[in-house]
Hints:
Pfam families: HMGL-like. This is Hydroxymethylglutaryl-CoA lyase. Belongs to the HMG-CoA lyase family. GO terms for molecular function: hydroxymethylglutaryl-CoA lyase activity; metal ion binding. This protein is α/β, with parallel strands linked by helices. It has twelve helices and eight strands. The N and C termini lie far apart (about 35 Å). The site of 3-hydroxy-3-methylglutaryl-coenzyme A has 24 residues, from helix 4, helix 5 and strand 5.
Amino acid sequence: EWPEKVTIKEVGPRDGLQNEPVEVPLQDKVAWIDLLSEAGYSYIEFSSFVHPKWIPQLKDAKEVAEMISRKKGITYAALVPNRRGLESAIDTDVDEVSVFMSASDTHNKKNINKSIEETYPVLKEVVQEAKLEGKSVRGYVSTVFGCPYEGAIATDQVARVSECLLEMGIDELSLGDTIGVANPRQVDQALSEWKQWLPFDKLAMHFHNTRGMALSNVLVSMQHNITTFDAALGGLGGCPYAKGASGNLATDDLVHMLHQMGIETGIDEEKLKEAAIYIQRVLNKALPSHQMQVINKE
Length: 298
Ligand code: HMG
Ligand code: MG
């Protein structure tokens, strides 16, 4: 049984660009996001309101939010780690904010400078405040299939952290294979267990393609009735505080596979290609997706 339709949430402007060694000029970022807005997405995560010392690539989040042409029907979202970030996000009138934490205590400390226990009250306040402002909230849990510092992460640990976020009132939960270590059998087993604890109608999966297993992991997830996936155009991406976390699942590869399978995404492959070629030119390097490898040979 395959789904008829899948929702793809584009995280390239955030997860992609945060891991690029070069800072993309503001004008180019805005032009790229505007191209993405024309491609048929319903959701674009455009930046992060985090400390610019930690992620200098996204220090212009406010300007990006103000300069992009927001299209009706698209949710424009940004990451916020704390109250300070939320205030900036609200000032720029984003549609949705994403809070994030890790299932691994060590990764959480490296990423946001707090233990898991210290993070809960911070995020609880952010979720409450965001809701009062009428914003929907997404919650990410990172390193759910493995951590670069702690190794294997137990499925019940992931469920515990996720349940805490759900109790705070998040509208969607995105489970992240931050360093791209998950294999399809592991995803199948983990999802079978999480099914007992987590509401699958609120679940999105966030795979990185570090070891080339992201698309296979999507297939397994679809078999568990998951129909929302995060992806970054061209396979950009990673996490600067997770060694080896290169390359999100490539949106263009995912869209191609789904369309070949007769599964709708609402995304226009030609427009996607235009947007991918644009950001490839700006970054001045060949993007790693299979679709772009084909295009680059033409
Ligand atoms: P901290 O140093 O512990 O913060 O950083 P603090 O609260 O002690 O404040 C220190 C200073 O930072 C203060 O300024 C604050 O005002 C300022 P000072 O008084 O010294 O001048 N500050 C801020 N400035 C701007 N924006 C803010 C902000 N907050 C405080 N929001 C902090 C804690 C969370 C801020 C920091 O660790 C941080 O910014 N981390 C960002 C980490 C990040 O963005 N990681 C990548 C995203 S997660 C990811 O990629 C995984 C995901 O893709 C899923 C997956 O793959 O699994 C989502
Ligand atoms: Mg990620």
